[in-house]
Amino acid sequence: MLSICIWHALVGALGLYLVPKQNISLIRLVAVVTALFGLIFSIYLYLSYDQTINQLQFIEKLPWIGGINAEYFLAVDGISVSLILLTCLTTLIICLMGGSLVRQNLRDYLAIFLIMQSMVIGVFCAQDALLFFLFWEGSLIPMYLCIGIWGSKNRSFAARKFFIYTFLGSTLLLIAVLFLGIKAQSFNLANIAGLSLDLDTQLWLFGAFLLAFAIKVPMFPVHTWLPDAHTEAPTGGSVLLAALLLKVGAYGFVRFSLPITPDASQYMAIPMIVLSLIAIVYVGFIALAQSDMKRLIAYSSVAHMGFVTLGMFGIYLIPKELAVMTFSGAMIQMIAHAFGSGAMFLAFGMMYERLKTRNIDDMGGVATIMPYLASFFVVFSMANIGVPGTSGFIGELLILVSFLKHQPWISAIAGLTLIISASYTLWMVRRVFYGPVNPNMPLAYDVTTHETGVLSIFVACIFLLGLYPKPLGDLLLTSSETVIASALHSKTGAKS
Amino acid sequence: MMSEIYTSLAGLVCFSPLIGALIAGFFAKRIGAFGAQFMTILCVAIAFASALVLFNYMYIEETRVFNYSLYTWIAMPGITFEVGFWLDRLSVGMMLVVTAVSLLVHIYSMGYMKGDPGIQRFFAYVSFFTFAMLMLVGGNNLLQVFFGWEGVGVASYLLIGFWFHKDSAANGAFKAFVVNRVGDFGFLLAMGLFVTYVGSLNFSDIFHRIPDLAAVSLGGMPLIDWICMLLFIGAMGKSAQMPLHIWLPESMEGPTPISALIHAATMVTAGVYLLVRLSPLFEFSPMIRSWILVIGATGGLILGMIAIVNHDIKRVVAYSTLSQLGYMMAAVGASAYGLAMFHLITHAFFKALLFLAAGAVIVAAHHEQDMRKFGGLIHSIPLVGVVFAIGSMSLMAVPLFSGFYSKDAIIAAIGATSLPGAHYAYYCLLMGVMVTSIYSVRAFYLTFLGQPRSNIHIHELSNTIKWPLIILAIPSMGLGYVLAPMAGNLHWFGEAIFYTHQSVTDLAGINGHLNHPGSMAMDAINSAPFILMLLSSFATYWIYRYSWAEKISKIFAPIQCLLENKWYFDWLVEQLLVPFVWIFSRAFNRVGDQLLIDQLMVMGPAKLLESFSLRIKAHISGHLYHYAILMLLGTAVLISKVVMI
Question: Which end of chain B has the smaller Cβ count within 10 Å, N or C?
């Protein structure tokens, strides 16, 4: 079942190449049908996932590389299921939008996103460390190509920076994985997590994981590749980067750092939280100073992902019940961030198509000429700010409130985001959409019906999740408890 | 059976404005301007009627409290966050005020917004605002209150920026939202304290656990004081208390009907409502109440003074709102929750009347707002002049008018309380009475009396503008008299408000007066507030009658300078805080991120590698796969090391 979930998109991508290059409408149809199939299938997966059972489900296990005991081992828990749903939804939106945002090599463009979907879902399903690494690296190359081929002016620099930066992290991850695999005589994540390791070893491993995952998330101070990659990437690439690839990094923390090196995670919890807080406050300030709209949204992404890492490592500082709350908050924030930032990138892409500029000073009064697009953007901004009733609020609320008794300083600092995120987001909205029309802007038409439809999907997700997050919370709850239990289980004591 | 009726009524009250908003928003083109107006007005009228029925149950048929949950928002171990309603006399009374004012403002807007291209959008926003406000008022837990709290903030943001092509409107909207967020920060932290210490956000759980909370202390201060302080910070944002009041005058850039609805009658009173709702907490925190008393009273005096020198008719009314909000807050500080609500209700009507009358003047004068250009308008728009006078007299607390009962009772209550700072607050508010009279008489004189100072052609007013004015004039005159005997009872909101023993003894004397509104008006004739009001009104009248204003302003030049600069609050924010933030964010961006992290830490090694690779270019081409191979090689070396270990 999970194999279908992973590989159908790859099949679809190959199928695209059976269609002649000129037949654009058929190409689009194939891509959309593949993505739609993925979404329906993942909804089916969600419905058949048993939330009452506290263990991995839909297990598929085949021997893979016999000599080193690596297996083709797929299984999911609630966290994976929610992220798979998100992946399929995002890909569908990109495929629906693809045709109107990219003019050249549409077939390759769509194929790349379908391949990326395969790889990302693979990451979320893999329960074998080596397989995880394979998918992890697999998602890197399509993104590199995507920025390098369809990016804007400075694309090759941004693509290289993105690739080398993330690849650097990956090599360390590979070393750590190999070390653990040899030690455990298996690459099965459960077996690896069962190893007892002393604190020093754990710290080394934690460092290797940290570099790999922190770059992907990205955490302060290894975040500077993201604004470059976002500004140069095509719209689809930006949406996917924000909505999915950043989550892969955070997911890595959940699957590797917390269960495999729990003592090191505990040891490093305060520094990690400080880095997260810096991301929330300092990066928020930086976002305020941006004059490039895409860079601004990219920095706001970093600030929002700061909440995810805050919620993950905050579990070590508070009692278990509250830890579950803050951890679930972090997981929900991951999903919600896709709807805030991803949607903003998509709407921005539509504006860019018309205005051909990213510079905020070249815009102004856009709401007068594109009232509908402006309305959509304001809704997305509200989700980004975390107004209650939108998806952005839930995660922030759960994380902020859970620290108040035991570590009030964390809430007090992180809570500043209420003011900072409102400032940079609405200041951008004010400069771009409000005010008199900038006479230097080209004449532009408002969103088409097709674009309205695609943006409405995001709007629907924002409000559905914001007004009734209980299903998502329930889906994540037991899995979060499991992760926290293993993250709090010390492994140094069990050594002798 | 009864519970089903309540459920459906509460649902109707809250959700029908939402339905109206959605219809007007989504089908704007299909139903046209009239369709949107009709649908939203119909929906708000349904809400108003349902609120009336609920009012009947709560006040006449003596139902006490009805608390139910609609659905579970999200469930976490140990705590569930819910959406639900809490109906008691307090919330239902407030619902009635909100829907009544909203209905009148909707009707008035038909005339005021006539011909505006965005009229459907306007009605959708106003209805959405009404919905959010009702969610705030009716919530049975703090999370839902917060939902409504931010929802009205969003609606206010959208409506202030309704004419988004104007720079001033765009800036006002931005400022309003961000300043309100400072307050929301406090609110959110207070919610966090409830979640972690009480394990629930529901009012019923919170109220039950107050004795436990009272025993806890946090960092040397009782927990209750922390909670009340944070909640008050939240209320300071929404109810525009110093120093977070700076957004309210700027919000006047929005259309006038919404100034009446949002920035006078309902949203800005949400902070007062929240504190009254949580009176069982605030009663146990005399220290914070003392602060509320002092901050409220100070604002009541000095923010009102700004209105004396302002020339914009709307802003004069806005500063008077700031001052009256100070009175309400001070009443909360003095434990006179019932009187705070009493003033909130009378103020909602007479201030809405003043705003709508000011709006009528503005429409009649072709969107001119500068009072220096008016004069003698009583002859061309007599009806507006009369209702403006009624509103002003109510505001100035002329005996028998609505504002008299609530305001004089508040001043008396503050005089009677024994909290630290009560004397200071009492004298502030007494002087505030003078200030109120001065700016009210001045505004009326400049606008309606004297000779016309410019040749403004006066526009005929439509009936949809006139009728709401007439309807609002009635409660502005008589509501105080009717409600006074009820407000005289400490428990006129049933169990909703909690008083400690001390508060009950302090307030006993004042409430006796209110029970006999007629004789209270008679007795007022030799009371300090009345004499001050009378003296300052006549003085102001003569000053303008004989054009002494110029000379007097020269004598008081330093004070006038202070007032014209709005006590330098805006200057502090705009000239000190904002540049400070800019310098920081630019420095973080340029030095921190671009230079130190990106150029030095990230690109530094890359540049080093590049120069290295240039030197041995014969061997290395600089292609990506070469870098990859290098990395793999390095990895292999590392692995071999690892394996050897």
Answer: N
pLDDT tens, position by position, B183-242: 999 999 999 999 988 888 888 888 888 888 888 888 888 889 999 999 999 999 999 888
Check residue B344 and report its DSSP letter: H
A384 touching chain B per CB within 8 A: no
For chain A, say whether B182 makes contact (Cβ under 8 Å): yes
Supply the pLDDT for residue A199.
Answer: 86
User: Closest Cα partner for A391 from A341, A349, A433?
Assistant: A341
How far, in Å, are B182, B369, B378, B551 from residue B545 at the CA level? 44, 22, 15, 13
Assigned token pair, B572: 């502090």
B555 plus B616 within the same structural domain: no
Domain annotation covers residue B20: no
Q: Helices B28-55 and B2-26 sit at what angle, rounded to 10 degrees?
A: 160
For chain B, what is the domain count?
2
What pLDDT, in 10s, does the model give residues A134-188? Answer: 898 888 888 888 888 888 888 888 888 888 888 888 888 898 988 888 888 888 8
Q: What confidence tens digit (pLDDT) does each residue in B471-515 have?
A: 999 998 888 888 888 887 777 787 778 888 888 887 777 777 777
> Measured between CB atoms, does B181 come within 8 Å of chain A?
yes
CB atoms B178 and A400 under 8 Å: no
Is B76 in contact with A328 (Cβ distance < 8 A)?
yes
CA distances (Å), origin B212, targets B207, B208, B323, B343, B429: 10, 9, 37, 33, 36
The shortest CB-CB distance from A404 to any of B147, B170, B193 is to: B193
Nearest CA in chain B to A388: B147
Choose one of B503, B533, B564: the last residue of a domain. B564
* pLDDT tens-place string over residues A57-87: 888 888 887 777 888 888 888 899 999 999 9
Q: Is the same domain home to B448 and B596? A: no
Distance (Å) from the alpha carbon of B156 to chain A's nearest alpha carbon: 13
What does the pLDDT average to over B304-311?
A: 88
Output phi, psi for A27, to 5 deg: -55, -50
Residue A331 has pLDDT above 90, yes or no: yes
Residues in chain A closer than 8 A to B167 (CB atoms): 434-436
| A398: contact with B, CB 8 A cutoff | yes
Q: Which residues of chain A from 217 to 256 reach within 8 Å of chain B, CB to CB?
A: 221-222, 224-225
Distance between CA atoms of B121 and B480, rounded to whole angstroms? 36
My answer on whether B601 and B527 are in the same domain is no
Exposed, middle or buried, B460 (CB in 10 Å: 0-12/13-18/19+)?
exposed
Quick check: is B498 in a domain? yes
B530 and B575 belong to one structural domain: no
Q: Do A404 and B606 touch (CB under 8 A)?
A: no
Distance CA A57, CA A78 (A): 9
Chain A residue numbers with beta carbons less than 8 Å from the beta carbon of B218 are 408
CA separation for the pair A172, B633 (Å, rounded): 13
Asked whether residue B386 falls in the same domain as residue B342, the answer is yes
Residue B160, exposed/middle/buried by CB under 10 A (0-12, 13-18, 19+)?
A: buried
Whether residues B536 and B591 share a domain: the answer is no
Residue where one domain finishes, among candidates B531, B564, B597: B564
pLDDT band for A495, please (50, 70, 90 cuts). very low
The reply to whether B49 falls in a domain is no
User: Per mean pLDDT, which range of A448-457, B332-341, B344-353, B631-640 is the poorest?
Assistant: B631-640
Chain B residues 32-51 with a CB less than 8 Å from chain A: none
Domain range enclosing B634: 569-644
What is the structure's pLDDT at B618?
A: 57
Q: Which pLDDT score, from 0 to 100, does residue A496 have?
A: 35
Which 297-336 residues of chain A touch chain B by CB within 8 A?
321-322, 324-325, 328
Q: Do both B328 and B356 map to the same domain? A: yes
pTM score, whole prediction: 0.91
Mean pLDDT across chain A, nearest whole number?
87
Does residue B182 sit within a domain? Answer: no
Residues B428 and B315 reside in one and the same domain: yes
Chain B residues with beta carbon closer than 8 angstroms to that of A404: 189, 192-193, 195-196
